[in-house]
Amino acid sequence: MRHVLMHISDLHAGPPFRLALAEQVAREAHDLKPDLLVVSGDFVQRADFRNQWRVIAGYLSTLPEPRLVVPGNHDVPLLNPLNRLFRPYNAYRRHISPNLNPVFERPGLAVVGGCTAHGLTVDGGYLTRDQITTIERHLSRFPAGTCKVVVLHHHVVNPPGAERRNMIKNAEQAVELLDRSGVELLLCGHIHVSYVGTTLDVRPDLRQGTIICQSGTTTSRRGKGRERGKNSYNVIEIDENVIRIGQHMFLEDAGRFVAIAEHVFPRRSAGVYMLPRSERVIDADLNTD
Fold first, then answer.
1. Labelling 252: which of 61, 79, 203, 285 has CA 20 to 30 A away?
2. Entry pTM
3. CATH of the domain at 51
4. Rounded to whole angstroms, how far apart are CA atoms 162 and 224?
């Protein structure tokens, strides 16, 4: 069975939010009709301000369902230390989702989210011991052949050429969890640069590794590094034999997001070492007809 995921991230409602661009993302999401829309955190720029939550909640209502969402570090209050330490997720739960570690499943596909944005961190994050145990338990109950996907806000690998920013503190544990649980794909964000690779890039000793798919910022002016001033999202197609990742970037001349690169990986079920089958850069068609 074929599954299509749309992966957006780092929306940042508030001063950096590009509303017209966000509306374009919503139109493209409805045109795509994904089986699941994934949002990997940072819904608001500053979680202390109610109006930003109202804006993003209104925007999310325009996006297709089903959706799987996880919080980012910007979704935790910064200015009020009591809220940050003792009520870090109140606004997120009220406006976005009551579930910090969601699970989506359908025949042949399991998507498990994990909250890495904990109140004691400002930019970085981590998975707690209980979360690691729970995620592993969730993943263990799916039959062979199921494509297992994990969604986090924070990244586990610093992409080459990107500004070095805080990965989750226990990145090594997270990478090993993904590998021993048979996770084929990790979706994340946080650093505002899109990237596709595998955990084998940094841990060649792993059994098979996990594909890493990072989204840049989809709707804000906070692109970093080579994507400064740019916006992106990913479209993932999963079928019986391959996982295909299309990186899409907004091009002003086209007035829309355009596929700029495609990466194709063999499925674990194919019994193939987890390296790209093929990669190509797409000659962007700027014709807006």
1. 61
2. 0.92
3. 3.60.21.10
4. 8
What amino acid occupies position 152? L
Range of the domain at 139: 3-281
Q: Which amino acid is at 24?
A: Q
Dihedral of CA atoms 135, 42, 157, 152 in degrees, nearest 10, equals: 10
**Residue 289 falls within a domain, yes or no?**
no
What digits encode the pLDDT tens for the residues 173-200?
Answer: 999 999 999 999 999 999 999 999 999 9
Place 6 in a pLDDT band, splitting at 50, 70 and 90: very high
DSSP string computed for the chain: --EEEEEE----BSTTB-HHHHHHHHHHHHHH--SEEEE-S--BS-TT-HHHHHHHHHHHTTS-S-EEE---GGGS-SS-HHHHHH-TTHHHHHHT-S-SS-EEEETTEEEEE-----TT-SS-B---HHHHHHHHHHHHTSPTT-EEEEE-SS-SS--TTSPP---BTTHHHHHHHHHHTT--EEEE-SSS--EEEEGGGT-TTSSS--EEEE---SSBS---GGGTT--EEEEEEE-SSEEEEEEEEEETTTTEEEEEEEEEEE-GGGT--SS-SEEEE--------
Which residue type does 92 have? Y
